[in-house]
Amino acid sequence: MKLSIITLFCFLVGFSFGQEEAEKNMKKLPSVVLKNLKGKSVNTSEMGFEGPVVISFWATWCSPCKKELNTIHDLYPDWQDETGVTLVAVSIDDEKTKARVSPYANAKAWDYEILLDPNGDFKRAMGVNNVPHTFLIDSEGNIVYSHNNYAPGDEDELYEHILELGSK
Amino acid sequence: MKIKLFLLAPFVLGASFLFAQGTISGNAESTFQYLNEDTVIGANQPPSKGLINSYMNVFYTNGNFKAGMRLESYLPRIQGYPNRFDGTGLGMRYVGYENDFVDVTLGSFYEQFGAGLSLRAYEDRALGYDNLLDGARIIVKPRKGIVLKGVYGYQRLSFQEGRIVHGAGIVRGTDAEFHLNEIFKKMETSSLDLTLGASFVSKYQKDDNSTLVLPENVGSYGGRIKMLYKNIYFDGEYIQKEQDPSNDNGNIYNYGHASVFNLSYTQKGLGILISGKSVDNMSYRSDRTKDLQDVFINYLPALNKTHTYNLVATLYPYATQPVGEVAFQADVMYTFLRKTKLGGKYGTTIGFNYSTTYEPKKTYNSNYPSDSTGIAYKSTPFVMSDSLYWQDINFNISKKFNKKFSGILSYYNIQINNDVAKISNDAQGVINAHIGVVEMLFKLKPKHSIRTEIQGLFVQDKDGVINDKGNWFTALIEYTISPNYFFSFMNQYNYGNPDKTKRVNYPIMTCGYIKGSTRFTVSYGRQRAGLFCVGGVCRFVPANNGLTLSFTQSF
């Protein structure tokens, strides 16, 4: 009896310590291998950017997603100069519309890193229910902020969070 | 005793410590409906009045180890979902190990070979579609640029009494992909980027038919290529399928084939895409007796733009005819850059898209079915007949006028052959519809904006009679307060219905609250019956009237 109580206690203590430890480390990006528009394989947990990274899930058939990315496109040069942020636009277009991703992104003259997730592997791993869904990752690879939706003005809130990272 | 305890304590502490390490991620989703009886639109109240679907994914990774599961619950299922989903239980679960060389999974997994013409296991929860494979998978990367895959499993067919129900046949497959520029040192700096791939898939299902001799093992195989040279991109895939008599093809013994290609040219401000697809007798399921969207091993995407405006997207959508079709698509997007005459201060984007689908040309075997071959006809890839299945011509202009006001103007002409791609019980032959949409966005003040949509759909008369449900009008207004709130109201009015009693309004009101990755929405009103489609796969949703609450959360 005593033994089991002590065992349970040890387990709980260990678990809670472990949790705290995990809390400190925060949630990391899962590792999924995706292709970029050049056909190169990119591991999502080792993208190798310096500074903060914004990961934005979108699709060519999603109007709010395109509004968000087109709005940020106008602000992106300033954001990059001020904070060194990189935006990675992960398209969840499947084989039906995947071929439209590159023409769309180029026609809009986007300067983002674009990754293709045609079977939803990264989307699933990131727990994305629906697009648009935007994540902010600090320079250590921790997910520090996320927002599911886009309404005009959301880009300002995102930028405030990016600035907070810069001041740390 | 004491000694034992002292020995045990650090071990337990360490084990639990280890367990608490690693990363947990996932998401939850729940949709509740309370439905009213509404005889005007033909909406029924289910006996339980309330309906609810819930899901939760939990994924755990710790170093090279990974595990995950999805619990799902239908108490009972919401309207339009497959009627055999019921109960609460595990809908997906797996364990796996992954390093840079090997990735092995046991349990449920999703997978796609190439463009998916031979194999694609995927999930689309909005559609209630999930054909995951339950079994084992191995992915090996012997060196940079080479990926080899092997899969073995049964497909998920249904979810009953809280358990996965598998399809009757077993699915096996292997795939290899070579990115030459990463493999060969010489090609590293080449401006031509080349990827080659090949796949082989096979299914086994017992022959339980007493009159026909059915092939128990049916293979499907082919190759693909992907090329990138400066601004030009090309990809193509060809898959052949062995004899596979099934309910879909009327038990013929023809071989099947499918091919797709995409050719695009892009530069800053311009994107051009030309695509083609040819499919014949390519319904490939792990149970030959199934139909609708059940246990498809392969994926045959419809070759057309996925539309987003309500009337365009849900009234006349098109899904691939797996028994056969030839389709082409052309898409051009161009942005008049900033500070040019047509671009104005912010730039103007125009888009044009054309897609068309025909029945393949078939040379029929006059001796069928009396000869022993069982081959009903012959067809050649990309050779088409003059029987139109689908055509869509559309263009749009989007422009930002000033800091506070932007708009999009769109026009669509859609023709869909209702005798082949059945979309409505009221329509005759080819439905020809013209649709116009004006969307406007006003920024009132920081964080506050209003978006409006005005949509009109006009159906051409057929032999002097109104075809299908006639004309529709839709208006939508949406008010958003960033980052937390939105309110919207939409009304659809079927003012042109030939049956005057069916000239009905479908008003619906929706509010939402979003905080980070949590999202609540509430909507109340009427929703018309229609096809709800994602990625060219469609599900019929009956008309309903009532309250819908939904909740989503990521973690």
Quick overview of this protein structure:
The complex is a heterodimer of chains A (about 170) and B (about 550). Chain A has about 170 residues and is α/β, with parallel strands linked by helices.
Q: How would you describe this structure to a colleague?
A:
The complex is a heterodimer of chains A (168) and B (555). With 168 residues, chain A is of the alpha/beta class. Chain A has one domain (28-167): Glutaredoxin. Helices cover 42% and strands 20% of the residues of chain A. Chain A has helices at 2-25, 63-83, 101-107, 121-125, 154-167; strands at residues 33-36, 41-43, 53-58, 86-91, 113-116, 133-137, 143-148. In chain A, helix 3 links the parallel strand 4 (86-91) and strand 5. In chain A, helix 2 runs parallel beside helix 5. The model of chain A is unreliable at 15-24 (pLDDT under 50). In chain B, the strands form five sheets. Chain B has a 24-stranded antiparallel β-barrel. Chain B is globular, with a radius of gyration of 26 Å. The interface between A and B is large, with 66 and 93 residues.
Write the layout of secondary structure elements.
The complex is a heterodimer of chains A (168) and B (555).
Chain A: H1 2-25, E1 33-36, E2 41-43, E3 53-58, H2 63-83, E4 86-91, H3 101-107, E5 113-116, H4 121-125, E6 133-137, E7 143-148, H5 154-167
Parallel strand pairs in A: 3-4, 4-5
Antiparallel strand pairs in A: 1-2, 1-5, 3-6, 6-7
Chain B: H1 2-20, E1 23-35, E2 50-62, E3 65-74, E4 87-98, E5 102-109, E6 111-113, E7 119-121, E8 123-124, E9 129-130, E10 133-140, E11 146-160, E12 163-179, H2 180-183, E13 192-204, E14 217-229, E15 232-241, E16 256-267, E17 270-280, H3 310-314, E18 324-336, E19 348-360, E20 363-364, E21 377-378, E22 384-402, E23 405-417, E24 430-445, E25 448-459, E26 472-481, E27 485-493, E28 505-515, E29 518-527, E30 530-534, E31 537-541, E32 544-554
Antiparallel strand pairs in B: 1-2, 1-32, 2-3, 3-4, 4-5, 5-10, 6-7, 8-9, 10-11, 11-12, 12-13, 13-14, 14-15, 15-16, 16-17, 17-18, 18-19, 19-22, 20-21, 22-23, 23-24, 24-25, 25-26, 26-27, 27-28, 28-29, 29-32, 30-31
